[in-house]
Amino acid sequence: VLPVVLRNREALEELGLGKIRKFITTLKQLKRDEEFVFPDGTRMTYSDCMHPPIQGRKLVVLGDTRDASAISKLAMNADVVIHEATNAWAHNASDAVIEASRHKAAERGHSTHVDAANFARKVRAKRLILTHFTHGLDGSADPKAVAHMDLLADDAAQYSGFTGDVIAAWDGMHMCIKRKKTFDAEGTYTPAPAREEPPAAARSAEA
Fold first, then answer.
1. Residue 102: how many CA atoms within 13 Å on its side-chain side?
2. How far is 38 from 44, CA to CA, in rounded Å?
3. Which of 41, 80, 98, 198 is positioned for an S-S bond with 202, CB 3.0–4.6 A?
4. How far is CA 178 from CA 29, 74, 81, 101, 175, in A?
5. Is 0.70 topped by the overall pTM?
6. Any idea what DSSP says for residue 132?
């Protein structure tokens, strides 16, 4: 766009179409079925002036809930679901503890980590982040605590059949939700680079 505008700069100014930046803004306001004809005869359409749209990212955040099905339609195909898991049970918990956790969740309007993973599976989410754990589970950034909670996340996937990423959040955790696509100066589209997860031993330092 810019080379064409510069080539026609003087003629555009004589026509009273303003300075370059303002004129480029005007071009961006073209409707999809409109075109602009420059003084030298160059024709420019909406698609010539605008990059193809970039698909947005969908983030679903659920607080205390026993059943999040009411939001399923809005949450469908989410990039990330953040779901409470107040009554999650520890890895290798006994059957009695598991049953008690499920009963307490139903009684108090909360969810287990498996409930959260089941919801993520139903809405076809790409990633599930578990949060809001009971005081019986250490959700700190201590490497040992993180390692234990990683096992809890694995259990959530195993019990529910959810095949996306499952992460048990720790205090101060930062998470990057990468863009679907990006483009370079020439307008060439390439997948956005993925961000590697830090090793467990380094997470406390990042938190």
1. 9
2. 8
3. 198
4. 28, 20, 14, 34, 9
5. no
6. -
